[in-house]
């Protein structure tokens, strides 16, 4: 699979539909796949932390979650055509699972959040089969892995925050041969449970979801400085 590189971090220049089609082939072949969201903040972090860079670059799909990735691609005449956000990728994968008859498992977040997300998603996606769920405070990890394995789920969504969720996936993939698709989904359960409201569609369409979140949470301003730092580094890199 052809990837683009930004400051040494790989990004997959594929749309939602192209990823789903590729996943169909990989699942049919019995391969396991991982999905990780990449944004400017995460690229800057990867520049300081070799482990984060390794986790990103070793993933099957590094989705361009963040308008900064699209801007960088345009500056470098790359092939990134659209944002592929983590929360929307999860939604597409859930619909894919329902259409193809695959069951899913949710792991992470607070009990109320993950349970409510499960209930709302089951109600909104016909034929979706949630084989099980567990909150992010499980102590007995061996029992959790056994629960996921026995559930028979083919897709697993892990919400522990990054890079913890990616580390968990890396450490447990081999013990979950039935799971064919792993996605670290950060705060997506918060969104699907209704606890956190997404930016209005107009903001999302214009790639200004970051601005909406900044207006709602001004304390995020420090995190948002990663965008200009990232773009400047991309421009200066030969």
Automatic annotation (TrEMBL):
Keywords: Cell wall biogenesis/degradation, Glycosyltransferase, Teichoic acid biosynthesis, Transferase. Pathway: Cell wall biogenesis; teichoic acid biosynthesis. Pfam families: Glyco_tran_WecG. InterPro entries: TagA_TarA, WecG_TagA_CpsF. It catalyses: UDP-N-acetyl-alpha-D-mannosamine + N-acetyl-alpha-D-glucosaminyl-di-trans,octa-cis-undecaprenyl diphosphate = N-acetyl-beta-D-mannosaminyl-(1->4)-N-acetyl-alpha-D-glucosaminyl di-trans,octa-cis-undecaprenyl diphosphate + UDP + H(+). The keyword Cell wall biogenesis/degradation applies. The keyword Glycosyltransferase applies. Its EC number is 2.4.1.187. Catalyzes the conversion of GlcNAc-PP-undecaprenol into ManNAc-GlcNAc-PP-undecaprenol, the first committed lipid intermediate in the de novo synthesis of teichoic acid. Belongs to the glycosyltransferase 26 family. TagA/TarA subfamily. PANTHER family: PTHR34136, UDP-N-ACETYL-D-MANNOSAMINURONIC ACID TRANSFERASE (PTHR34136:SF1). This is N-acetylglucosaminyldiphosphoundecaprenol N-acetyl-beta-D-mannosaminyltransferase. It comes from Bacillus lumedeiriae.
């Amino acid at each position: 699979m052809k990837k683009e590189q930004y400051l040494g971090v790989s990004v997959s220049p594929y749309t939602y539909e192209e990823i789903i089609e590729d996943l169909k082939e990989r699942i049919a072949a019995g391969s396991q796949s991982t999905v990780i969201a990449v944004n400017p903040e995460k690229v800057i972090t990867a520049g300081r932390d070799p482990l984060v860079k390794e986790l990103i670059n070793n993933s099957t799909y590094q989705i361009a979650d963040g308008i900064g990735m699209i801007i960088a691609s345009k500056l470098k005449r790359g092939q990134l055509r659209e944002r592929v956000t983590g929360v929307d990728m999860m939604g597409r994968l859930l619909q894919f699972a329902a259409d193809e008859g695959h069951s899913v498992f949710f792991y992470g977040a607070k009990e109320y959040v993950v349970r409510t997300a499960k209930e709302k998603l089951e109600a909104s996606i016909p034929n979706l089969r949630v084989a099980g769920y567990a909150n992010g405070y499980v102590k007995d990890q061996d029992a959790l892995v056994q629960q996921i394995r026995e559930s028979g789920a083919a897709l697993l969504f892990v919400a522990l925050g990054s890079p913890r969720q990616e580390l968990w996936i890396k450490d447990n993939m081999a013990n979950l041969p039935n799971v064919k698709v792993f996605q670290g989904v950060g705060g997506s359960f918060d969104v699907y449970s209704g606890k956190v409201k997404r930016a209005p569609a107009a903001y999302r369409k214009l790639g200004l979801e970051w601005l909406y979140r900044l207006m709602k949470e001004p304390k995020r301003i420090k995190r948002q400085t990663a965008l200009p730092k990232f773009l400047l580094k991309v421009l200066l890199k030969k």
